[in-house]
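[agent] plan:
  1. take the single chain provided in the ticket
  2. run structure prediction with default settings
  3. attach structure tokens to the ticket
  4. add a short note for the reviewer (M.T.)
[agent] executing step 1
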Amino acid sequence: MTYADTVKHLEAVALAVGAGSFWHGPKTNQNINYDAAFPQVHLFLLPAPLEGENVVYQPTLCFYGKDLHEHAANLVDEAAVGQSLDIQNAMDILSQQFINALREAGRFELSERIDRAPVLRKGSTIGTGFLCSFTLKAPAAYLC
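[agent] step 2 finished; step 3 output follows
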């Protein structure tokens, strides 16, 4: 499986489980686009080492919910803190649904261990959600 095929598959699964938009590559390093559909799934560039006749992808995705307190100065507000927990909870569930759908799709061998953590991205915009990383293994493209 190629890199592009893998990105397209991850996008299709994310959208199928309820993501409003999917971002990949350089777009993940920009400020969150509050005009785009939420929840947003951001796929960071993924390492793709070869292991024997397999390619081993190591994706890291962040599932962002829309935080109404989108400016960092509002992070001291108690309402913002409570809202962040609610958003993280919703993105926790969405990320679990995503992993389950990946397993059910069966196109990759998915690692048993899935690293996950709540996130709060500060800056000119705030990204509240859940970060998820894992390993996918598939036959190298030259074998397909």
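[agent] step 4 note for reviewer: The CA atoms of residues 99 and 114 lie 8 Å apart.
[agent] ticket updated
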